[in-house]
Amino acid sequence: AQAAPSQAPKALEALVKVAGNADRFVRQVAARTLVALAKAAPSQASKALEALVKAAGDADRFVREVAASALGALVQAFPSQASKALAALVKAAEGDAHGRVRLVAARALGELAQAAPSQATLEALIKAAGADRNDKYDSARFAAARALGKLAKASPSLAPKTLETLLKAAGDDYSAVRKAAARALGELAKAALSLAPKALEVLLKAAGDADSDVREAAALALGALAQ
User: Fold this and answer.
1) Angle at CA of residue 201, ends 141 and 171, nearest 5°
2) What distance in Å separates the CA atoms of residue 132 and residue 145, rounded to the nearest whole number?
3) Is the four-CA dihedral 134, 140, 143, 145 of positive or negative sign?
4) What is the pLDDT of residues 121-170, one digit of tens each?
5) Burial of 160 (0-12, 13-18, 19+ CB in 10 A)
6) How is residue 133 annotated by DSSP?
7) Are 23 and 55 in contact (CB under 8 A)?
């Protein structure tokens, strides 16, 4: 049950301490719960964020994964905290040793891009989208490409700077990345009409992709452009 509003600040303060518990399972639960308590006690959101940033560097990869996801959720609820969460998410998306953590962090960057689009977030996503193509965890590139489309939609002024990266993603070896790029290019074209001709050219090519999911994503993007 959610703590009563009057008790939420005290509960959050206690949970921040629990987030440093020696038991990794306790730390996981604490990271999951911090966002809900921050919503119940908005004045304490910065404390929750500090605890989650610390958890994002935890020795346990499951704690890092939960923390990255929670940071994305926290920023959605409190966009003013975006700049403080960015460094931790960038570090996780670019350099975490575990692919699942990189994926979740890239997704969280997408949430950050929607809630508080910025040049810094754009640069982080571009770098994540261009990660090592030999990395078997292509899902991080997929999430980054998808997030670039969301950023273009949220901040049309930044849309032109995503084009080159999305064009590269559209030719990625992995179909999931090409699919994400097709969806993102559709959003990009609607956000910045001057880029529509180039996006249209790539989407028409994607409509003939060997993978059916990519073809479907391209067709949906083309349909959305026609509306």
Assistant:
1) 30
2) 14
3) negative
4) 888 888 888 765 555 555 778 888 888 988 888 888 888 888 889 999 99
5) middle
6) T
7) no
Q: Report the amino acid identity of residue 107.
A: R
Structure tokens at 220: 């949906």
Extract long-range pairs of 63-69: CB within 8 Å, 24+ residues apart.
63/24, 63/27, 63/28, 63/31, 64/92, 64/96, 64/98, 64/101, 65/98, 65/100, 65/101, 65/104, 66/28, 66/31, 66/32, 67/31, 68/92, 68/101, 68/104, 68/105, 68/108, 69/104, 69/107, 69/108
Q: How many CB atoms lie within 10 A of CB 158?
A: 19
Two tokens at 56?
């994002």
CA 124 to chain centre: 10
Q: Return the axis-axis angle of helices 212-226 and 196-206, rounded to nearest 10°.
A: 150
Q: Which of 114, 111, 116, 110 is nearest to 128 (CA)?
A: 110
- Do 147 and 106 touch, CB atoms closer than 8 A? yes
Closest CA to 199 of 173, 225, 161: 225
Can you tell me the distance from the alpha carbon of 2 to that of 162, in angstroms, rounded to the nearest whole number? 40
Query: How confident is the model over 59-77, as a mean pLDDT?
Result: 94
Question: What was the pLDDT predicted at 153?
Answer: 86
Model-wide pTM > 0.90 = no
Render pLDDT for 204-218 as a digit per residue (tens, 0 to 9).
Answer: 999 999 999 999 999
